[in-house]
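Researcher: I'm preparing a figure for a lab meeting and need a structural model of a single chain. I don't have an experimental structure, so a prediction will have to do for now. The sequence is pasted below. Please return the structure as C-alpha cells so I can convert it later.
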Amino acid sequence: MPERDTSRAVPFRGGGFAPGTRRAAAWIVFAVLLGAWQVGSDLGAISPLFLPSPREIAMAFWSLVESGDLWRHLGASLYRLAWGWSLGTVAGLAVGFAVGMFTIARSVGLPLVSALFPIPKIALLPLFIIWFGIGEPSKVATIFFGVFFPTVINTYAGVDNVARGLIRMGQSFGLPTAAIVWRIVLPGALPGILAGFRISASIAIILLVAAEMIGAEWGVGALVLAAGNLMQTDLLLAGVMLLSLMGLVVSFVLTRLERRLLRWR
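Model: Understood. Here is the structure written out cell by cell.
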C-alpha cells in the first residue's frame, strides 16, 4: 500500500516590511475632524474668540487673497526661505562630504559642528541684525545657520555609513577619486542626505516665522504676529494654515525627489 503524502505547502512569510499608504483614509479622517470642528462651533461649544470655525478661517484666508496681501506675505517668505535653505544646504553638503571623507576636515569640523549645533539659531538673530542690519540678510543668515548644521550632520552620517568594501573595490579597479565619490559614495549617502533635507526644511520654516516676527513688514510670520496682537484669531489661523500648506508643498517636492533619485532601491 503506497504511503500517503502528508506534506503541505509552507506559506510564504518573506514579504518584508513594505508599508503602503491609503490616501482615502487620510482625507476621510481630515474631513471628519473638520466637520466635528464646524459642528462644535455652530452649536456654541467652541468659542469663536479662542478657536474660530473652519468657515471663518476660510473667509479670512479669502480676504487675504482678494486684498492681494496673501501674495505679498507669501512672496516675501518664499524669497527668504529659498535663499536661506539653498545656501545652507549647499554649504552643508560641501562641509558634510569633507568631514565624511577627509581626516583633517573631520578632526577640525566635527568638534566645531557638534559644539555649535545645539545653539538655538533664533538666539543669534539679534547678533545677525547688528552685523547685517534689520533687512533681508539677517533673516536669510538665520535660516542659513539653522539649515547648515543638520545638513552637515546628515551628510557626514550618510557618507560614513557607505560600505567601505565598495570603496575599496572601486580603488582596487583603479577608479579615480571623483568617480568613486560620484558612483559609490554619493548614491550610498543619498538616502541619509535626503532625509536630512526634510529635517532642514522644517527647521527653515520655523526659523523663517521667528525671524519675520522680530523685524519684518511682510511675511507669513509678520502676518501671524500682527493678527495675534489684534486678537484676530481667524486671520492668525489662516496664517498658520498657510504655513501648513507650505510644509505640505515642501514635503511633496522632497517625496518626488526621493522617488526620482532613489529608484535604484
